[in-house]
Design a protein that fits this description.
Number of strands: 0
Oligomer: single chain
Order of helices and strands: HHHHHHHHH
Distance between the termini: 79 Å
Radius of gyration: 26 Å
Length: 203
């Protein structure tokens, strides 16, 4: 991207990583495409959201490279036309998930434009939902990922795993419901016996 990423996020080059992240989150909420659905600003918001994403990812990449080289972060910016250009991969989101930073992963996933939400996006969304304990929502996203890329073993394994879990949960709930009915009948029978009869005669 040609623009200075620090200017795009509205932060000083000397800003801390946490300050950069905070600025990114605020802009992500402001320009999220879902806020402008069916409005004349929809396309503009999508472009702005992409610019914000690219700026944040570029800053992260720059600082990571500086740290790996053992340099202190000077904050200087060098224009690089070969910087991140969209969502050809979701490595950064996977890193957030690996670090159990599900809030950050959620923000990044939600900021991906609708047209760029591929099978991997649906899979990662399912992973975030699963981590939150929203298993039925996770299953829907895993199934969507499998439909979009049926040969991907990672997606299939996740879908099968969550499907087995949700099926077991439904079975357990059904069993719990049966036990509740049994408990009620037992109580009624006890009451009838106290009254000098049995459940059948009382009914």
């Amino acid at each position: 991207m040609a623009n200075d990423p620090y200017k795009v996020l509205g932060v000083d080059p000397a800003a801390t990583d946490e300050e950069v992240k905070k600025a990114y989150r605020e802009l992500a909420r402001k320009y999220h495409p879902d806020n402008y659905v069916n409005t004349p600003l929809s396309d503009l918001a999508s472009e702005k959201m992409k610019e914000v994403n690219e700026a944040y990812e570029t800053i992260q990449k720059m600082r990571k490279e500086q740290a790996e080289r053992g340099y202190s972060s000077s904050g200087s910016y060098q224009s690089n036309s070969g910087s991140y250009g969209g969502y050809s991969n979701f490595a950064d989101i996977r890193s957030c998930i690996g670090a159990r930073d599900f809030y950050e992963a959620q923000i990044r996933l939600d900021s991906v434009p609708m047209g760029e939400r591929n099978a991997e996006w649906f899979y990662l969304k399912g992973v975030v939902f699963r981590a939150k304990g929203w298993y039925f929502e996770a299953a829907k996203y895993f199934d969507s990922a499998c439909r979009m890329d049926p040969t991907n073993e990672e997606y299939r394994n996740a879908a099968n795993s969550i499907r087995n879990y949700t099926s077991a949960s439904q079975t357990q709930r059904a069993a719990d419901g049966i036990c509740d009915v049994c408990s009620t009948l037992i109580c009624m029978d006890c009451i009838c016996e106290i009254c000098g009869g049995d459940l059948i005669s009382c009914c």
